[in-house]
């Protein structure tokens, strides 16, 4: 069997279809189709079936996924023999929460590039629940995120730090009119915040719900920079990791409000699948992350 066929199979799973996999791997779509046909012949099973205009995994095709991932991990181990020192190569796929990649991990990524220039690094920014899903599916090697509970025994998680949160507003806001610690009230103001699955949004909304506090609107944005600019323009208030707004608090572009929440921190972690082979690249990256957070 040709290892390339399994790499193509994995690429199809990750990219969602034959054409995207072909584009990613630099093949024509006919080459991808041919490779899958050869793999099906060698295994004597049907991996894909055509439903409408789409090629969909069969039940046996789904069963092949973990075996294919295990095989390709073994290939990576073999390819890395003798390359554990200064010549680290290969590929590293990382999923990172937006706030962490924007404000906490730039130095880590820079150091990693200096120490392992021959490693191909792929980074995607996702919310924490999506990161857990990609880890469980074996689509990324490492996830850097916040602890959202719902522990999964298939993941190894390492605590990095407890990080404080802050409720912020524009200096233009008449702060004496807004007491977020007082229950049973309707406030004529907007909450400007990340998507619904965001852990710090859930903390604030749970506080509002428990205390019957209602805001007249929620503006949902996927960029912390956009959120900060909107809050600074007095379009509403937000609840964000303090490290992401320290500069604005110092220069007076944002002001802090008392939140009244019983929980005003989140826990940063990194995680990987328990069956994941820790390659030299993965080991180095995790080491740099721990050093960045002063974890031994």
TrEMBL record:
Q: Which residues form the HTH lysR-type domain?
A: 1-58
Q: Does the keyword Transcription apply?
A: yes
Sorted keywords for this record are: DNA-binding, Transcription, Transcription regulation
Q: What is this protein called?
A: LysR family transcriptional regulator
Spell out the Gene3D superfamilies in the cross-references: 3.40.190.290, Winged helix-like DNA-binding domain superfamily/Winged helix DNA-binding domain
Q: Report the superkingdom from the record.
A: Bacteria
Say which family it is in: Belongs to the LysR transcriptional regulatory family.
Query: Which organism does this record belong to?
Result: Clostridium estertheticum
């Amino acid at each position: 069997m040709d290892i390339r066929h399994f790499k193509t199979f994995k690429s199809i799973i990750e990219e969602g279809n034959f054409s995207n996999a072909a584009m990613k791997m630099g093949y024509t779509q006919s080459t991808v189709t041919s490779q899958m046909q050869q793999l099906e012949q060698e295994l004597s099973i049907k991996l894909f079936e055509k439903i409408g205009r789409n090629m969909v995994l069969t039940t046996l095709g789904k069963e092949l996924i973990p075996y294919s991932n295990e095989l390709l991990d073994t290939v990576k181990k073999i390819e890395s023999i003798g390359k554990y020192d200064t010549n680290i190569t290969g590929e590293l796929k990382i999923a990172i929460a937006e706030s962490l990649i924007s404000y906490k991990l730039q130095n880590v990524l820079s150091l990693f590039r200096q120490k392992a220039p021959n490693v191909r690094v792929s980074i995607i920014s996702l919310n924490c629940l999506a990161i857990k899903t990609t880890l469980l599916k074996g689509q990324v090697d490492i996830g850097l995120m916040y602890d959202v509970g719902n522990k999964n025994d298939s993941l190894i998680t390492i605590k990095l730090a407890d990080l404080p949160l802050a409720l912020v507003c524009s200096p233009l806001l008449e702060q004496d009119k807004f007491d977020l610690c007082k229950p049973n009230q309707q406030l004529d103001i907007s909450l400007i915040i990340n998507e619904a699955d965001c852990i710090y949004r859930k903390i604030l909304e749970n506080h509002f719900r428990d205390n019957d506090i209602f805001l007249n609107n929620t503006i949902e944005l996927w960029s912390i920079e956009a959120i900060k600019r909107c809050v600074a323009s007095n379009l509403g208030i937000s609840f964000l990791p303090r490290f992401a707004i320290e500069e604005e608090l110092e220069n007076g572009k944002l002001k802090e409000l008392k939140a009244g929440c019983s929980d005003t921190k989140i826990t940063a972690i990194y995680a990987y699948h328990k069956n994941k082979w820790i390659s030299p690249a993965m080991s180095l990256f995790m080491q740099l992350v721990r050093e960045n957070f002063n974890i031994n």
